[in-house]
Amino acid sequence: MSQSTLDDDELFGEAASEMRADVEDSLDAARASLPSADDIWDVDADNTLGALNTLSSALDIGDAEDHLRDAKKWYTMGERADAFEDADDLAEAIEDVEALVEDIEAAGEQVSDLTSTIPQLRGALEDATEGDADPETDADGSTEAEA
Predict the structure, then answer these.
(1) Using CA of residue 116, residue 121, residue 126, residue 127, what is the dihedral sign?
(2) What CA–CA distance (Å, rounded) separates 143 from 132?
(3) Nearest 5°: CA angle at 44, between 128 and 97?
(4) What's the number of CA atoms in the CB half-sphere (13 Å) around residue 85?
(5) Across residues 56-83, what is the average pLDDT?
(6) What digits encode the pLDDT tens for the residues 107-119?
(7) Helix, strand, coil percentages for the chain (3-state, nearest 5)
(8) How far apart are CA 95 and CA 42, in angstroms?
(9) Mind listing the pLDDT tens digit for each residue in 10-20?
């Protein structure tokens, strides 16, 4: 009976180690899916709209959410099974990656809003400028210069 128990403990220990490795691998894959700092900082564009479109593309998180979900899934399973001796580092790493994903998604939404707003603003400013280019007319239709 003790041999069976020892084998079960060894198997559980191996499973716990594999589970921890799965969480760490998923977190590494999530981080690798995130855009690099240079991707969101260095933009090659001729105008504001081009810069916003480039930034929007750079803010794509790829499969980071899927990898984060896998990490959380394996972490939750390991925690419930009490398989981790010390999982504080895993919990902190998950929170860090989750916060990064949320920040990048929020930035992407803001850029998307600007991408749709900037052309409208440009059009409104052009319309306002065109109206200022016409000479002001009096009620009788004559310009101030003619009066």
Answers:
(1) positive
(2) 14
(3) 105
(4) 4
(5) 95
(6) 999 999 999 999 9
(7) 75, 0, 25
(8) 27
(9) 888 899 999 99
Contact between 75 and 23 (Cβ < 8 Å): yes
Q: Are 45 and 39 a contacting pair, CB within 8 Å?
A: no
- The contacts of residue 60 (CB under 8 Å, 6+ apart) are 35, 108
Bridge partner residues of 137 (DSSP): 143
Q: Rounded to an integer, what distance in angstroms lies between the CA atom of residue 16 and that of residue 18?
A: 5
Query: In this structure, what token pair is assigned to residue 24?
Result: 């760490």
Contacts of 137 (CB under 8 A, 6+ apart): 143
Calculate the alpha carbon distances from 128 to 29, 49, 84, 140 in Å. Answer: 50, 20, 65, 24
**What is the reported pLDDT for 140?**
53
DSSP state of 47: S
Residues paired with residue 82 on neighbouring β-strands, in sequence order: none
Tokens of 86: 């010390």
Which token pair is 43?
Answer: 């933009």
Over residues 88-108, the pLDDT tens digits come to 999 999 999 999 999 999 999
Mean of pLDDT over the chain: 88
